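Hey, I was hoping to borrow your eyes for a little while. I'm sending you its amino acid sequence along with the backbone structure tokens. Take your time with it, there's no hurry, and the full record follows here.
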Amino acid sequence: MADWATISSLATAGGTLVLAVATFASVRSAGRAARAAERSLQVGLRPLLMPSQPQDPSQKIVFIDHYVHTLGGGAVAEVTEEVIYLAISLRNAGSGIAVLHGWVHHSDRVIDGHHPDVGVFRRLGRDIYVPPGALGFWQGALRDPAEEAFTTARDGITERRPMTVDLLYGDHEWGQRTVSRFLVLPTQSETWIASVSRHWSLDRPDPRPEEGERGRRHRRRH
């Protein structure tokens, strides 16, 4: 005679297993959908700053005691006895509002693959917003002639040497922090032009291989 109690227990266990598998698959699918939705939302908020285009109009940038004009695709570096005024004409190529947080000025061309630590960025005196797809700017000033950074910046500007500016910014929710490195070059017409060399996302893993790994891959290809 069939042991109906055993058969019933096995059927119940089988049904429970099927339900567990279905629940796991459903939860996993829901997790993937949630991650995809979150990533889509982040992409919609993500800014990306680039130099403006040469055909873009000039901008009047006002400091508390001075103002300058930047040409499309250009930058400003003005030296006085007490203040150094710096500015770059920008365009936001991303899909979200860019909020500028801070900056680091280098008095030479920086080509290494690392950005400065967040703690060394100079905080802006005011929040600067650049709408998506629109024209904007960055401005900064050095106001302490006794500071070493003032001396090195003054010498580099007066000697018309290339310089580098790292900008720290994020979206309007204060997330997706990014560092973009801008190279500022002198022109023969006594003006300055800007280009961008690299972007780093501080809140996500860097997809680029480390220098050692890049070298090993290059050797394997050749």
